[in-house]
């Protein structure tokens, strides 16, 4: 009996020593440095569900069972302050996004409304959230235990081909702009062209390059999520500062045009930028997608480029299906635990801090430094060339001619 007890004591202490030295859970990283998420479309849900009337919106409560924002009624609603705290989220780029496309009206004014609702939401919860526009501001808010809240403008459609509007969104606090969302623009193609061999590509036009350069001058991060492969390459070659992918995963792990191919991952390494991995199931794998698939995407980027060029861009509010085990903002710590559990050599606490936020912080800081070297440059007054607009109108016209032709044929066939 006593031998048995002795054995038990020795075994238990050996286990606890092992645990103390090796099995520090990955989530500890999130206490050391803010977890910075590159993309969340909560504001888009506020527009669609509440017309941005937020005084009755209880963001400080657990909304998982809410009649409007609960998971039963809204698959793309996965965010509230209770679950954010549980998920140890330190900073969020809130997305100012409005639908793109030829049938959308008032895109610019709606985009301003989205910036407004993000700011008003932050103001409504001063104990929990803090509006941030600088890299150091993220750390300051974290020390005050508030969620650093930044604005990312999703889609160049919001600036209506005007550098003046780009500057005004920067003035309002937007610290990245995604060059395109899913619609191609007169000056840049969106990623769907990569799965349409017959698409009329413009790549990144000269005017598009001017937009990138103006963003460098302003100190606004260039976000390449959603753009075509050619635009990724050309924007990286144009930019004088590191660029980001605010919510994109790895093409080699799952081939979808929204994901980033290895040649671009290597260019990101040279550029000093970052790829913030998206949690949307449809970009991660074929079926039965789990938290392990997210880990695979992250590990692939590390295999190709190293641990300094990867981050997190969940899209938690925004898309409608998430991996098993990573269903809402309360689950981030499980991902950090899992990565470390599977490979403690790679995922030291220090490297997990890089994934969480240090990498994005480094990029943001560098973008600010580049801005400071460009103070002598004047704002670019260029207007979009008529030929860019004509070409864009031409491809729409060609498309509508084709549509008219099909309609006529169908009507003739049906004799209607
Ligand atoms: C907010 O809630 C109050 C009290 O429940 C209600 O009277 C009011 O109509 C609501 N306002 C909106 C905009 O839903
Ligand atoms: C663990 O990480 C190290 C360092 O990145 C790597 O060399 C090794 O292949 C990884 N092991 C597994 C099983 O993935
Ligand atoms: Zn998006």
TrEMBL record:
Protein name per its UniProtKB record: Dipeptidase
Organism: Zophobas morio
Keyword Nucleotidyltransferase applies: no
EC class name: hydrolase
GO term, biological process aspect, one: proteolysis
Principal cellular location given in the protein's record: membrane
Catalytic activity: an L-aminoacyl-L-amino acid + H2O = 2 an L-alpha-amino acid
Cofactor(s) listed in the protein's UniProt record: Zn(2+)
Signal sequence segment: 1-20
Cellular component terms per the entry's GO annotation: side of membrane
One Gene Ontology molecular-function label: metal ion binding
Topology term for the membrane: Lipid-anchor; GPI-anchor
Subunit structure of this chain's protein: Homodimer; disulfide-linked.
PANTHER family xrefs: DIPEPTIDASE, MICROSOMAL DIPEPTIDASE
Enzyme Commission designation: 3.4.13.19
Domain of life the protein comes from: Eukaryota
């Amino acid at each position: 009996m006593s031998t048995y007890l002795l054995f038990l004591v020795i075994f238990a202490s050996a286990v606890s020593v092992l645990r103390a030295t090796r099995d520090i859970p990955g989530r500890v990283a999130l206490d050391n440095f803010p977890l910075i998420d590159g993309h969340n479309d909560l504001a888009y849900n506020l527009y669609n569900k509440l017309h941005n009337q937020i005084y009755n919106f209880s963001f400080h409560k657990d909304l998982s069972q809410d009649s409007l924002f609960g998971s039963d009624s809204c698959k793309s609603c996965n965010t509230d302050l209770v679950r954010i705290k549980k998920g140890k989220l330190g900073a969020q780029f809130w997305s100012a996004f409005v639908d793109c496309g030829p049938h959308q009206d008032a895109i610019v004014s709606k985009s301003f409304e989205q910036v407004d609702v993000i700011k008003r939401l932050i103001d409504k919860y001063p104990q929990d959230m803090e509006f941030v526009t600088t890299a150091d501001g993220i750390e300051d808010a974290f020390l005050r235990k508030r969620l650093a809240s930044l604005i990312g403008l999703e889609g160049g459609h919001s600036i209506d081909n005007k550098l003046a509007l780009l500057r005004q969104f920067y003035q309002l606090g937007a610290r990245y702009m995604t060059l395109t969302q899913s619609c191609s623009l007169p000056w840049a193609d969106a990623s769907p062209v990569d799965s349409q061999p017959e698409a009329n590509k413009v790549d990144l036009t000269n005017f598009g390059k001017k937009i990138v350069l103006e963003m460098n001058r302003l100190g606004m991060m260039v976000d390449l999520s959603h753009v075509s492969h050619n635009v990724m390459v050309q924007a990286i070659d144009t930019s004088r500062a590191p660029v980001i992918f605010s919510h994109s995963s790895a093409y080699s792990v799952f081939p979808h045009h929204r994901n980033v191919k290895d040649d671009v991952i290597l260019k990101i390494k040279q550029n000093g930028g970052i790829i913030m991995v998206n949690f949307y199931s449809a970009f991660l794998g074929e079926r039965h997608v789990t938290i392990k698939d997210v880990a695979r995407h992250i590990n692939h980027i590390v295999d190709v480029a190293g641990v300094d060029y990867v981050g997190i861009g969940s899209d938690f509010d925004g898309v409608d299906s998430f991996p098993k085990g990573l269903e809402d903002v309360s689950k981030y710590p499980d991902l950090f635990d899992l990565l470390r559990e599977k490979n403690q050599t790679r995922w030291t606490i220090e490297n997990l801090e890089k994934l969480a936020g240090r990498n994005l912080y480094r990029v943001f800081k560098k973008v600010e430094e580049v801005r400071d070297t460009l103070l002598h440059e004047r704002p670019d007054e260029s207007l979009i060339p008529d030929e860019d607009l004509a070409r864009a109108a031409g491809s729409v016209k060609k498309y509508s001619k084709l549509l008219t032709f099909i309609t006529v044929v169908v009507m003739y066939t049906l004799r209607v």
